[in-house]
Amino acid sequence: MNDFDGQVALVTGGSRGIGRACCLAFARRGAKVAINYAGNEAAASETARLVAEAGAEAKLLRFDVADPAAAAGAVDELVKAWGRLDVLVNNAGVAIDGLLLRLREDDLRRQLAVNVEGAFWLAKAAARPMMKQRKGAIVNLSSVVGEMGNAGQSAYAATKAALFGLTKSLARELASRNIRVNAVAPGFIDTDMTSGIPEAQRQKMLEMIPAGRLGSADEVARVVSFLASEDAAYVTGEILRVNGGMYM
Ligand code: NAP
User: Fold this and answer.
1) Which CATH class is domain 8-242?
2) What HEC string does the chain produce?
3) How far away, in angstroms, is 38 Cα from ligand 1 center?
């Protein structure tokens, strides 16, 4: 399926996990893929290699999504090089878990800066070329905990809930320019982010999932690429849950 032929997709946090799977999903569907990452050179290079193996062009963009000037500069550089920007996936995220009384000021601020401000700055930078083209799709990676909450993740869950407001507001603001904005809310997905969860807690979480298993990064990426594709041409402002029934 080459329905993204001639299109350019930018995936933040594309070096690992769900972001890498998104890069590969777009590459397989014919898009050129820009892979943003924070600092893990080896993982980012491996994603670029896999994108090339899938027959697509790859470009590595190292910057901190929480830095508005860096985000704007990277999008400019990308549009200069490849002439357009069709898809933005705001996937980069950090989770700093802890009970309320243990979380420090820095923990909250960093999660807000990366998870919320990062998505905001990237959407702002991407909206300009997308408006010019009168075409674009933005997909924000939220989380099941943004809807249902989770003890020990109050700050993280707050940042993921904030993305619902951002998604719906931008969907309303940009629809007339043919730019769609949606969110995906994954459940418990098998990536580096969840690999450190203690076994007892893991078992408890599995009991909450009717499907009885963790989801894969690829299963999330397929939904992300669906939302960015013409198959979802009349879908905007939606939150699509990918959670094996964990929350309905
Ligand atoms: P992950 O395996 O921990 O990977 C995080 C990615 O984000 C990496 O590519 C990392 O780059 C990048 N990143 C982190 N901070 C960044 C920054 N400041 N600037 C640019 N890139 C940055 O995460 P994941 O599990 O794939 O999760 C991806 C997204 O899905 C996140 O938004 C997460 O909150 C959300 N999500 C995950 C789950 C889950 O169960 N895994 C569930 C719901 C939602 P480096 O490699 O350079 O460090």
Assistant:
1) alpha beta
2) CCCCCCCEEEECCCCCHHHHHHHHHHHHCCCEEEEEECCCHHHHHHHHHHHHHCCCCEEEEECCCCCHHHHHHHHHHHHHHHCCCCEEEECCCCCCCCCCCCCCHHHHHHHHHHHHHHHHHHHHHHHHHHHHHCCEEEEEECCHHHHHCCCCCHHHHHHHHHHHHHHHHHHHHHHHHCEEEEEEEECCECCHHHHCCCHHHHHHHHHCCCCCCCECHHHHHHHHHHHHCHHHCCCCCCEEEECCCCCC
3) 10
